[in-house]
């Protein structure tokens, strides 16, 4: 079998500022750059980064019957609860629903839908459906407990009056606890469908349902099953946000969540981060959401607004994130809560800027909020996004009762007000460089029709609680495989991989590199929650532009199972988000079977003082595994596979003549011929990919390469670099062909090409320091060559062609030795 690739060594210099740390240039976000008026404030332009993808889930009825259950079928199937009554309930100002107990036996006799083979194995699963009606509800939420779905089983939920299906839920549910609240399900009837082995009871319980009414925030409660209101959901003095110029309207969401008392609503804002990574960090009030359980029940509704200024018509293009959030930080005295929204968020949100500095009285501000209790699926739809204009008029205001705010801003309103349901929304001040959030709504008497003395509200200060959320403002966390955001930065992994809590972002895909020989099987599986971001996988062979395998289902896992029928090669696994900005996943990755992989390149050195070559068979310190006399002072050593037997052997270049050996032993040269001139820098590599290394020279910015080890004219001439650059060559992309590169002492950068042609660098990076000698080799058998440097008896080797610390450090040789590397056996 032909060899994969080769490497060679030349004396040279690789400059670097600092020992072995390689500097990294700042990398901008995908399409945005931050405008930073001061070091303590940040504001981003509109994040117009793509469409809002949310691929619908296919419930068992659609897959088994060819269509979802009709409304009539759902009505006939449903177990009906007694009429809902609110007698005796204490309704909070932002409450829109109450919890009802449900007998467990409503799931005891579900309708069978048919059978289907499991996606994850050969087992047959039966589809089931059950339904529940809470009369006269505008919407429902179901509380699942004891969820423990066997492998391959799936659970889906939807409202009979809605087109949106929630799921699939698998295992122990989205939080791994067996408990969760569903999305808001439109209508009075909720449908539950699941796939499970036949003959088993439902592997979950639903013992509680949230009954959401049509007319939120009632001033009185009656016993008729309908909550009576005395007026519209939002007063007439509220201003339509679509009449304002603020792009921050795309950062605000209505949130629905569960408390011990039932279903409630508030408002909140998605924030920018210093790293511009579009992390879904969401700011609201502590008196809205203050516990981890409440956070897990949060569902966000985005773009809940009118079609145009004062149109009075609510846009149908709203976006609902699947339920789920993580409580990151909360505090009652400042009345703030920071959440990480787990459900998919739109990619064209505006991530709002903020300022950690306090602002003085007299500062003009605007607010964006959802007054009272409606959602986009409520009737009538009157809680669409509003704006209010006011002025800071106090620096130390407090709130009593349930909010407990201390030391907040007072805002006097000039136009518009806020109302219950607006809680948790932000206020911003504006500059020529953008607008900056400085507060979160806590309490206040403002409402349409109140006297001017009561047209004010109190806000928690961002400047007060910013230190407690500062680490999140830097950006979302990532995993230990970073940086691996592109094929060029792919992480070469040690197999097998079984990794948890991996992070993939919209602006930071994950790439993994593996080598597979002929007949080897590549098996990659990722597990995640589809509702928290649809993660897909693609497998690429080497530098090919199109993937050779794809996994892009709508389930909670993706698998690629590929057998390499071609020659040994380098493969890249791409893990990326189809939608959303961030999700976490578990991954198992392994390569099994196939021919044995090629051995790694290992270190060696040539000692001019005695003419000996000292070779190591591993990249570790120790005595030479093989040593022999070959060459003399003034010779330039090289190494290559001169006869295609898969073993690198030594050679020397002396005053325009090459002397090559086909064994690593003393003796006369097996090949000797003239090529080049005294002063040229000798090269060795497989320029044409035929499995045999041949020679070349570098002269004043030009490579002269031969495809045979003989005298003659060059077969390839490449103008690359400048007269003062130093050459370095290797199989940089794993395609079994050696290509050119150079090191530029003037700036410490390496510039490498993936073809033996002139042009711009395919990769450039900073590595080494003055006086280092660069080397190139496949240090771990990963499938391609990467750089290293030799410094006064120490090798510093990188496993990727990028800036960074050395992955391998080998103390070998003495000051004055010349490094030489190869596959010695």
Kindly describe this structure.
It is a single chain. It contains five helices and 56 strands. The protein is mainly β. Strands 3, 6, 9, 10, 12, 14, 15, 16, 17, 18, 19 and 20 form a twelve-stranded antiparallel beta sheet that branches. Strands 2, 4, 5, 7, 8 and 11 form a six-stranded mixed beta sheet that branches. The chain has a six-stranded antiparallel β-barrel with strand order 22-23-24-27-26-25. Strand 53 and strand 54 form a beta hairpin. The radius of gyration is 33 Å and the shape is elongated. The two termini are 15 Å apart.
Summary tags:
825 residues; 6-stranded mixed sheet; 37% strand; mainly beta; 12-stranded antiparallel sheet; disordered N terminus
Beta percentage is 35-45%
Number of strands: 56
Calculate the mean pLDDT score and round it.
88
Gyration radius (Cα, Å) is 33 Å
The helical percent reads under 10%
Sketch the major β-sheet: 12 strands, antiparallel
User: What structural class is derived from the secondary structure elements?
Assistant: mainly beta
Which geometry do the CA atoms define? elongated
Q: Report how far apart the termini are.
A: 15 Å
Number of helices: 5
Oligomer kind: single chain
Unreliable runs: 1-39, 43-51, 216-232
């Amino acid at each position: 079998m032909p060899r994969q690739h080769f490497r060679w060594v030349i004396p040279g210099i690789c400059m670097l500022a600092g020992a072995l740390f390689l500097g990294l240039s700042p990398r901008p976000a995908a399409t945005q750059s931050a405008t930073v008026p001061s070091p303590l404030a940040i504001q981003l332009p509109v994040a117009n980064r793509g469409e809002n993808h949310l691929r619908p889930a296919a419930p068992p009825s659609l897959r088994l019957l060819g269509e979802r259950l009709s409304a009539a079928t759902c009505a006939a199937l449903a177990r009906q609860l007694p009429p809902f009554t609110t007698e005796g309930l204490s309704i909070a100002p932002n409450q829109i629903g109450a919890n009802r107990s449900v007998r467990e036996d409503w799931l005891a006799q579900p309708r069978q839908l048919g059978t289907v083979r499991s996606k994850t194995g050969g087992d047959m699963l039966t589809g089931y459906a059950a339904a529940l009606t809470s009369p006269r509800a505008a919407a429902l939420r179901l509380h699942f407990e004891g969820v423990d779905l066997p492998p391959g089983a799936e659970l889906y939920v939807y409202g009979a009056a809605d087109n949106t299906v929630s799921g699939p839920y698998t295992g122990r549910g989205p939080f791994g606890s067996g408990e969760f609240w569903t999305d808001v399900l439109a209508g009075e009837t909720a449908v539950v469908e699941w796939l499970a082995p036949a003959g088993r009871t439902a592997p979950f319980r639903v013992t509680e349902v949230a009954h959401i009414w049509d007319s939120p925030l009632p001033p009185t409660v009656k016993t008729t099953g309908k909550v009576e209101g005395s007026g519209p959901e939002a007063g007439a003095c509220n201003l339509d946000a679509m009449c304002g110029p603020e792009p921050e309207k795309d950062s605000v969401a209505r949130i629905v969540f569960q408390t011990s008392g039932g279903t409630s609503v508030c408002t909140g804002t998605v924030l920018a981060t210093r790293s511009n990574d579009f992390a879904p960090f969401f700011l609201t009030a502590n008196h809205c959401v203050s516990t981890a359980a409440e956070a897990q029940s949060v569902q966000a509704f985005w773009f809940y607004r009118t079609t145009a200024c004062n149109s009075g018509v609510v846009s149908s293009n709203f976006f609902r994130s699947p339920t789920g959030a993580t409580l990151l930080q909360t505090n009652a005295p400042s009345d703030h809560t920071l959440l990480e929204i787990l459900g998919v968020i739109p990619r064209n949100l505006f991530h709002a800027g903020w300022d950690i500095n306090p602002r003085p009285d007299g500062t003009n501000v605007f607010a964006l909020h959802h007054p009272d209790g409606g959602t986009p699926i409520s009737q009538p739809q009157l809680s669409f996004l509003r704006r209010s204009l006011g002025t800071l008029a106090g620096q130390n205001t407090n709130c009593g009762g349930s909010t407990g705010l201390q030391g907040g801003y007072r805002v006097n309103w000039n136009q518009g007000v806020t109302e219950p349901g607006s809680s948790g929304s932000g206020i911003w001040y504006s500059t020529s460089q953008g607008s900056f959030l400085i507060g979160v709504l806590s309490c206040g008497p403002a409402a349409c029709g109140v006297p001017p003395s009561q047209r004010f509200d109190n806000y928690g200060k961002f400047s007060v609680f910013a230190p407690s959320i500062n680490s999140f403002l830097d950006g979302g966390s990532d995993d230990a495989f970073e940086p691996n955001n592109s094929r060029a930065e792919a992480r070469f992994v040690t197999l097998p991989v079984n990794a948890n809590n991996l992070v993939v972002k919209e602006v930071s895909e994950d790439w993994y590199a593996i080598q597979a020989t002929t007949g080897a099987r590549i098996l990659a599986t990722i597990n995640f929650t589809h509702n928290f971001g649809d993660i897909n996988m693609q497998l690429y062979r080497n530098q090919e532009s199109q993937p050779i395998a794809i996994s892009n289902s709508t389930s909670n896992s993706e698998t690629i199972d590929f057998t390499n029928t071609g020659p040994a090669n380098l493969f890249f696994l791409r893990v990326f988000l189809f939608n959303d900005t961030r999700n976490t996943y578990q991954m198992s990755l392994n390569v099994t079977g196939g021919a044995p992989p090629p051995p790694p390149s290992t270190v060696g050195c040539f000692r001019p003082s005695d003419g000996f070559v000292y070779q190591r068979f591993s990249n570790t310190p120790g005595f030479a595994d093989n040593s022999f006399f070959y060459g003399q002072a003034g010779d330039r050593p090289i190494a290559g596979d001169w006869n295609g037997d898969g073993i690198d052997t030594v050679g020397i270049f002396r005053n325009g003549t090459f002397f090559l050996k086909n064994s690593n032993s003393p003796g006369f040269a097996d090949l000797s011929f003239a090529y080049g001139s005294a002063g040229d820098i000798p090269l060795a590599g497989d320029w044409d990919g035929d499995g045999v290394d041949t020679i070349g020279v570098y002269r004043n910015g030009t490579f002269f390469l031969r495809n045979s080890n003989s005298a003659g004219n060059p077969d390839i001439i490449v103008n690359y670099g400048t007269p003062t650059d130093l050459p370095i060559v290797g199989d940089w992309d794993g395609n079994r062909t050696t290509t050119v590169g150079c090191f530029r002492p003037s700036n410490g950068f390496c510039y490498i090409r993936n073809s033996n042609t002139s042009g711009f660098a395919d990769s450039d990076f900073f590595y080494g320091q003055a006086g280092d000698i660069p080397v190139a080799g496949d240090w771990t058998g990963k499938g391609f060559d990467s750089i290293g440097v030799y410094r006064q008896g120490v090798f510093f080797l990188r496993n990727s062609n990028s800036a960074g610390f050395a992955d391998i450090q080998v103390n070998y040789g003495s000051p004055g030795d010349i490094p030489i590397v190869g596959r010695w056996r």
